[in-house]
Amino acid sequence: MTYVVTENCINCKFQDCVTVCPVDCFYEGENFLVIHPEECIDCGVCEPECPADAIRADTEPGLDEWLALNAKYAEIWPNITEIGTVPPDAEDWNGKPDKAGLLITGEAPPEPHAQKPIYEAGEMPDDADAEHYEVDGAAVPFPEPAGDAPIVRLDPIDTDEPEGFEVDGLRVTP
């Protein structure tokens, strides 16, 4: 038997458990702690110390995934032996359900969440017939005004033109 850190530790990471562990078997990730199952001596001293009630004996049903996760990241993350920085909003996260998706592991995700199209500088996608501007080599079409929304023009500063106002070196005229 060993003890495992479970989902409620995510974004809480109070670390009270760390100071009572006689064998220093806790390891620290960015927003979660884990227990090394090979180092844990099953004393159970840490379990009642956790304010988030996130530490469980691995004999409880449904903890196989958390046991595997503790074992994996205990091999990667640094050992922690004293209380470090507790997140300022730890108490706000305590008890919130469905936090598993928020776990920061330090590994790259299998696929990026979003990826902007990459064009060579000056190159436009085939369907881009509209006027556009470039950002980081990507052509971005000007948006169409919605309904009767006023159109604001941004022109280089013309010192002879007193109307409008200046923002970052551009004259804004309504």
UniProtKB/TrEMBL annotation:
Pfam families, per database record: DUF3470, Fer4, Fer4_4
Acidic residues bias spans: 157-166
UniProt cross-references to Gene3D superfamilies, sorted A to Z: 3.30.70.20
Keywords, sorted A to Z: 3Fe-4S, 4Fe-4S, Electron transport, Iron, Iron-sulfur, Metal-binding, Repeat, Transport
Cofactor: [3Fe-4S] cluster; [4Fe-4S] cluster
Gene Ontology molecular function: 3 iron, 4 sulfur cluster binding; 4 iron, 4 sulfur cluster binding; electron transfer activity; metal ion binding
Annotated ranges, domain 4Fe-4S ferredoxin-type: 1-30, 31-60
Region (Disordered): 87-112, 139-174
Function: Ferredoxins are iron-sulfur proteins that transfer electrons in a wide variety of metabolic reactions.
Full protein name: Ferredoxin
Taxonomic source organism: Albidovulum denitrificans
